[in-house]
Amino acid sequence: METKGYAALEARKPLESFSFKRRDLRDTDVALDISFSGICHSDIHQAREEWGPAIFPMVPGHEIAGIVTQIGPKVTKFKVGDRIGVGVFIDSCRTCENCKKGNQQYCLKGMTGTYNEYERDGKTVALGGYSNKFVIDQDYAVHIPANLDLAGVAPLLCAGITLYSPLKNWGAGPGKKVGVMGLGGLGHMGVKFAAALGAEVTVFSHSSAKEVDAKRMGAKHFVVTSTPGSLEPLAESFDLILNTVSAELDINEYLKLLKTDGTLVVIGLPGKPYAVEAGSLLRLRRSLAGSMIGGIPQMQEMLDFCGEHNILSDVEVINADYINKAYDRTVASDVKYRFVIDASSF
Ligand code: NAP
Ligand code: ZN
Ligand code: ZN
Questions:
Q1: pLDDT interval class at 270 (50, 70, 90)
Q2: Share of residues in the chain with pLDDT > 90 (%)
Q3: Atom of ligand 1 nearest to the CA of 335
Q4: Which residue from 8, 172, 325, 330 could staple onto 199, CB 3.0 to 4.6 Å apart?
Q5: 3-state secondary structure (DSSP) of residue 275
């Protein structure tokens, strides 16, 4: 299947127009026309090799929303014309304990990422969502509720599920104080979900201009972290803090904000290790945890929740020729709050 997209041909080079072929449909595959594809900060980290050596040419993109155009002979989950979403992985071993529980993102043999990975045959390079067509096994795609705008849905496939999963896992809800560090693509979805679940939400941001937006999304409090002394009055007051910041920071300052038995969940992946002071964990029996996207059943649950509560990502829709500019603006925290590529522009 002839496909048009955008690729990084090598690390730290601007992305450019790139044509390639997708595979013919296997028995349980579905083909889709991509409508919109989100730009996640993880795309930038990988295209720029900030997480170590990567596979080039790289077609990034793992926030994919589109319409089914063809189905393989054994497909039962989708029909032509369905609205379909694809996220951060396209396959996994299907047999390990975690896959069987629907936690494919924690596959014990390693999930297969949507791009910058070899598929399970060990030789085919996976090419991602900055493209106009896609082919995927039905088990690794989800249904998009009919009432949701596809541009605002695309970021839910990574940013959305990545925040929904820890909020559910650590029981965010009424009576719980939740902090969200960084109001970017991930963070803004965290605010919307935590508020919809009934928690009291505080945003920690280094961008003072984002306060009005944070409150509109459901935050009760907004803390400008670049103001000296802004964190001290909040010591020992949070049940859960989600760190979505893509840059390095002093994690101890935030651990101290947790109540007894509170948890700080690491979600951002800056590429350099955090330095954790033992004292900030031992005191008040605090936990430092991590969380990575979510499995297929939880992705479907999250999208259904968005359908019921009318939750979408705030997006800036762009054409393909703006991708490189969008990367620079994302790194500068200058996006409200996710760039989404209109796939008809490839
Ligand atoms: P993003 O849209 O760029 O948002 C990151 C936010 O971090 C920015 O909006 C900014 O928020 C804050 N920030 C950026 N630079 C900063 C600095 N120098 N100092 C302090 N704060 C800074 O990125 P994203 O797409 O949400 O992704 C966030 C991170 O999560 C990335 O590292 C990404 O790779 C990772 N990620 C992890 C998972 C997972 O499964 N765990 C999934 C997807 C992405 P303010 O302006 O509000 O301060
Ligand atoms: Zn992502
Ligand atoms: Zn597995």
A1: confident
A2: 98
A3: 2
A4: 172
A5: coil
* Residues 212 and 78 occupy one common structural domain: no
Q: Which of 161, 183, 246, 292 most suits a substitution to test ligand 1, by most atoms within 8 Å of the C-beta?
A: 246
Ligand 1 near 161 CB (within 6 A): no
CATH number at residue 141: 3.90.180.10
Our answer on whether the CB atom of 83 is closer than 6 Å to any ligand 1 atom is no
Interatomic CA distance for residues 153 and 280, integer angstroms: 38
Query: Residue 174 above 90 pLDDT?
Result: yes
Domain match, 29 and 119 both: yes
User: How much is the pLDDT for 271?
Assistant: 77
Q: Are β-strands 221-224 and 200-205 bridged in parallel, bridged antiparallel, or unpaired?
A: parallel
pLDDT tens per residue, range 219-269:
999 999 999 999 999 999 999 999 999 999 999 999 999 999 999 999 998
Question: How many domains are there within the chain?
Answer: 2
Give the Å distance between the CA of 97 and the centre of ligand 3.
7
Largest CA distance in the chain: 62
Structural domain range at position 232: 160-290
Q: Are residues 34 and 68 in the same domain?
A: yes
Instruction: Give the DSSP letter of residue 156.
Output: G
pLDDT attached to residue 219: 98
- Residue 71 pairs in a beta bridge with 30
Nearest CA residue ID for atom 27, ligand 1: 41
Residue 172 shares a structural domain with residue 51: no
Residues 134 and 43 occupy one common structural domain: yes
| Local structure of residue 192 (DSSP, 8 states) | H
67 lines ligand 1 (CB under 6 A): no
| Atom 46 of ligand 1, residue of closest alpha carbon | 207
pTM over 0.70: yes
Q: Could you report the per-residue pLDDT of 113-130, keeping only the tens digit for each?
A: 999 999 999 999 999 999
CATH number at residue 261: 3.40.50.720
What residue ranges in 206-278 does DSSP mark as E strands? 221-224, 238-243, 258-266
Residues 18-27 have pLDDT tens digits of 999 999 999 9
CA dist., res. 46 & res. 154, Å (int):
19
